[in-house]
Design brief:
The chain is an alpha+beta fold. The protein is built from 12 helices and 23 strands. The chain is globular, with a radius of gyration of 20 Å. The N and C termini lie far apart (42 Å).
């Protein structure tokens, strides 16, 4: 097969890497890719939002299957366009991708189906939102309704911070159309976890669990980010909790989407809060998480490609996936100033020795090649990912590799996975 991976982040690097290892695949292309992906696949400079260009690329290169990585093209209907052009694709269509594209849609589905989640209210008027926040008190959570690249969520410890988040979205229009409506949610206390499942619209195959680290600084301090690191498996998700998540959250969602004429085909990523009263849904994403994808792919023992094909073809009940028992840890190295104003265009002087350890893989996120130099672009730049016999060993492998990266303009958290062991 010839497979095209759409995207340019570390998630897409991890996907391209495992897909390239499949005996079913003879060629992997990535559009647009990055400097690291170019070592594992053929990168083609076609943007993720250039639907016509992606279809033309598939036809020119006789691509058999497309795997769409990021949420933006999924919500915009890339899978619909590819399938209409006769090109098989992995990922939900636009009608199903609204689960991530609109937090209001997700919350209403939860309310309808009795899926446990935080109480909430929706607003387009800033004054009304602030009155609600004042009545509820803090801590409280303010979310842009649409896609905001992981930066549209503010967990406010006081009402002043919540008011500022309202002003940013509804007053300053910082998130554009994505913040034209906001969702104000009850703050849930507990342990966060990420739960992934493949679904073909009917059948559901749970994947491994992971735990992300959203705050920018050590000790979970500072603003929310797209994710500063992750580890898998998440020890806090016991078999009993997994069964409850499947019964009360994942399966009711899949059934409701199918019943409502929006059958979901792809990977369903539930962001969870494990509260004293049980797991509750924080949000849905309609694609693999980043950096969770990196740790999942490091632990995957099976060939991923048959599972992706079965998801698209509606025969997911015929496949299974096996996982290594080892723990995986991913440490994100980001550009200074991230998440607000990351420094752009600096040189990563050297990665020499960083991934000499066979248990380490460096997945590139925001990089490009300039001759022999690797240039950092974007906020999150590298995802240094390692396997170990347990969490402590995986952390040791990962941080030993991180310390060999020569990039003075980069920074990272030193405590990924530390709280869990």
């Amino acid at each position: 097969m010839r497979v095209l991976v759409v995207g340019s982040g570390a998630r897409e690097h991890a996907l391209a890497w495992v897909i390239a290892a499949s005996p079913l695949v003879e060629r992997v292309l990535c559009a647009p890719g990055n400097a690291g992906i170019a070592e594992d696949a053929e990168c083609v400079p076609v943007a993720v939002d250039d639907t016509a260009g992606l279809i033309a690329l598939c036809r020119r290169e006789a691509v058999d299957f497309v795997v769409v990585g990021p949420e933006m093209p999924l919500v915009a209907g890339l899978v619909d366009a590819l399938e209409a052009a006769g090109i098989a694709a992995f990922g939900p269509n636009a009608a199903a991708a609204v689960l991530e594209g609109s937090k209001s849609f997700m919350k209403e589905l939860c309310a309808r189906e009795g899926i446990p989640t935080a109480s909430y209210a929706r607003f387009t008027d800033g004054a009304e939102a602030k009155a609600y926040i004042a009545a509820q008190g803090a801590p409280i959570v303010v979310k842009a309704d649409g896609l905001a690249a992981g930066k549209g969520v503010v967990v406010a410890d006081d009402t002043e911070t919540a008011f500022a988040a309202v002003d940013a979205a509804l007053g300053e229009h910082r998130f554009g159309a994505a913040g034209a409506e906001i969702v104000v949610e009850e703050f849930l206390a507990g342990e966060e976890a990420s739960f992934f499942a493949l679904t073909d619209g009917v059948h559901v195959l749970p994947l491994a669990t992971a735990q992300d680290h959203k705050r920018v600084g050590d000790g979970d301090t500072g603003p929310n980010t797209g994710g500063m690191g992750a580890y898998s498996p998440a020890s806090c998700v016991t078999p009993e909790i997994e069964a409850e998540v499947m019964t009360r959250i994942i399966l009711p969602t899949v059934r409701a989407m199918a019943r409502d004429g929006r059958p979901f085909k792809g990977v369903l990523y539930a962001g969870l809060m494990l509260t004293a009263s049980g797991p509750k849904l924080l949000e849905y994403n309609v694609r693999f998480g980043d950096p969770e994808c990196q740790v999942l792919m490091m632990r995957l023992k099976s060939d991923l490609v048959p599972a992706l094909l079965a998801t698209r073809d509606g025969i997911l009940d015929r496949v299974d996936l096996r996982w290594y028992d080892e723990t995986a840890v991913c440490v994100v190295i980001a550009a200074r100033g991230y998440p607000d104003h990351p420094v752009q265009g600096t040189e990563i002087r050297s990665l020499t020795g960083a991934d000499d350890d066979p248990e380490v893989k460096i997945f590139h996120a925001g990089t490009r090649r300039d001759g022999a130099r690797i240039i950092a672009e974007g906020g999150r730049v590298l995802g240094v990912t390692a396997l170990g016999r347990d969490l402590a060993a995986a952390r040791d492998h990962a941080y030993a590799a991180v310390d060999k990266v020569d990039w003075p303009e980069g920074f990272f958290r030193r405590d990924i996975g530390k709280r869990a062991g």
